[in-house]
Amino acid sequence: MNIIVCIKQVPSTSDVKIDEKTGSLIRDGVESKMNPYDLFALETALQMKQQVGANITVLSMGPPQVQDIINEAYLMGDVEGAILSDRCMAGADCLATSFALSQCIQRIGLPDLVICGKQTTDGDTAQVGAEIAEFLHIPHITNVLKIDDIKEKSIIVESDLPDITQTVELQFPALISVEKDIVQPRLPSYKRKRSLPSLHVRSFNRNDLADKDEEKYGLNGSPTRVVRIFPPEKTRKTELVQGNSTELADKFYETLAEWKFV
Amino acid sequence: MEVCLIIMKAKIVIHQQHAQNPQELTELCPFGAIEYMNGQLNINAACKMCKLCVKNGPVGVFELIEKQQVEIDKTQWRGIAVYVENTNGVIHPVTYELIGKAIELSKKIAHPVYAVFIGSQIKEQANELLYWGVDAVYVYDQPEFASFRIEPYAAAFEDFILQASPSTILVGGTTLGRSLAPRVAARFGTGLTADCTHLEMQANTDLDQIRPAFGGNIMAHIRTPNHRPQFATVRYKIFSAPQRRDARSGTLITRELPSEKLVSNIRVLSLKNKPAIVSIEDAQVIVVAGRGVRKKQDMAMLQSLAERLSGQVAATRPLIEAGWVDARCQIGLSGRTVSPQLLIACGVSGSVQFSAGMTGSQHIVAINIDPNAPIFKIAHIGLVGDLYEIIPLLLERMEAGMHSKQTSHLPFPENVVK
Question: Hey, of B11, B31, B48, which one would you mutate to test binding to chain A, going by the most A CBs within 10 A of its CB?
Fold first, then answer.
């Protein structure tokens, strides 16, 4: 079985800067790490490998520094790496990101299963998985809560829908995005650090992809534009009450009475 | 505020022959995006298009080449469409909230409002939608739509877009909506903005979309200036539902897909109802526990308060992670968005991540020992004190109040409920 896990490098903190001119995020200069949701995707793949045997490739798009999270993945288990890096891909929105990743997945070779995390901690959109599946013309299931069974040509999973959970059989090739807590991600093994030099990583750029049209990548290939970025508003006027606990409890009670809750 | 957005395609070209000291030029870029390898200057993927190299570099080496994009004809795209989220034909209330918003947005540009309803045996419910002020309901009612499977649902949505050419499409930010909307947006190569908290329509039909990013630390104003249809998802309880009308209006348009459009590589084996708990989004009163609550046993005190007010207990992320409260009762950007009649925040500091999920609450009381806690910026009433003393005293008073007044205890008097 062949699996590609898509992972992303995100800033370690939410305290980030914005490029005011382009509206793109400035990621350099702040500490970065693997998107925490991707740990669940990677662990899901590693457990499948243990169960039925699999070749796992972790794929990340970004500047050359994404090598760091490929290494991080390797410390968790036996994977190969793939990096998609090209200046024309900078500033991509969900659509341009998904398109580039789908092109790279086709270049590597369409696997049986693509696994994505639920969302990223920087964009919070949860859209890239479904968009990759569309570009690859394969079915997808998002919000996967549990892997029930792995068969030769299909997988049985439980997914979360608004009022129900659905158990489905999904034919390969397919894409799933997994919920947080589907599995417990293992800690990186520092023993594996010694064998890090044997980690096989392939690097790709736009010229390696079937569609080389630079208008389709990065900021140029992004239909959405960030018009402006601003801090959240805080406008509410609060009545701040100080005093001893009895006075505060009285005030609390009176307020609830005034609002007709008691 | 009117922001004029010119859509430009841009790239930076390096004229190698003008570079005197190429190795030094790599220093120009604060992002380390300029490389000098094998006698060639190159720009790598770290480039942010900040243009500092063009501005500060030696004349003629870095050149910015810009060209304006051909603008699409936006008059070809008319209408604001709402996807009708449903489980076995039962319409999810986020649908009505989005219809209300769509009607409001349509007034500015005089576009029709459409509902797109995909399901099986949904004729009756499709009729119900005509009481909500839409101009037309596109109904896709075939047995293959009984359970959600991405390929047939995306095919129906695609058919709707090809038929109606809507300018804007709103989809509920539920697990289903967030699976379907990106699939269809990608099919049309267009923009989709997730979890919008504010929407406004420009006269040129561009939708102004505002959404939180980076865990709510930043708000982003996003547009899709040169693609149609423009997609947005909105979570449940962000907008309010309009009044149901007394008379029906609008038309039903029934569409049927040919069988080859209905094939799927997904086979639904079983469906399970989720345990019937009142979801936290539907609670009218919510008592939220934050890190000021010291141990799991103390949750009982908050539970009593919630019960006394016929409400529910919820929590912030640290307590959910500690396993004290069910994860479905997490409030905040990574949990649920709520807008109850009353929210009591107990020992909650009030991070932006948390407040993004509850600022819509009608009445907010905060108890915190720290007078500088950010929660006091969003609460209506802020009690600076110890929740371990205040809540037991309040419970006593409520007990006494009930006995002395002998009034019937109505949790939601009519003048409070919307």
Answer: B48
- pLDDT tens readout for residues B76-111: 999 999 999 999 999 999 999 999 999 999 999 999
Q: Does B393 touch chain A (CB under 8 A)?
A: yes
* Chain A closest-CA separation from residue B255 CA (Å): 23
Distance from C-alpha of B327 to C-alpha of B317, rounded to nearest angstrom:
9
Q: Are residues B63 and B89 in the same domain?
A: no
> In chain A, where does DSSP find H-type helix?
36-52, 67-76, 94-108, 128-136, 245-258
CATH of the domain at A193: 3.40.50.620
pLDDT tens, B286-327? Answer: 999 999 999 999 999 999 999 999 899 999 999 998 889 988
- Residue pair B87/B145 in contact (Cβ under 8 Å)? The answer is no
* pLDDT tens-digit readout, A26-75: 655 567 899 999 999 999 999 999 999 999 999 999 988 899 999 999 99
pLDDT digit string, tens, across residues A179-193: 988 999 999 998 999
Could you give the number of structural domains in chain A? Answer: 1
Residues B398, B285 contacting (CB under 8 angstroms): no
Q: Number of C-alpha atoms within 13 angstroms, CB side, residue A122?
A: 24
Which of B68, B91, B118 delimits the end of a domain? B68
A20 touches chain B (CB under 8 A): no
Residue numbers of A between 225 and 254 with CB closer than 8 Å to B:
225-234, 236, 238-246, 248-253
Give the domain extent around B58: 8-68
* Residue B38 burial class via C-beta count within 10 angstroms: exposed 0-12, middle 13-18, buried 19 and up: exposed
Rounded Cα–Cα distance for residues A216 and A88 (Å): 9
Contact list, A16 vs chain B (CB under 8 Å)? 214, 217-218
In a domain, B24, yes or no: yes
Task: Read off the tokens for B335.
Answer: 């949990």
ipTM value for the complex:
0.90
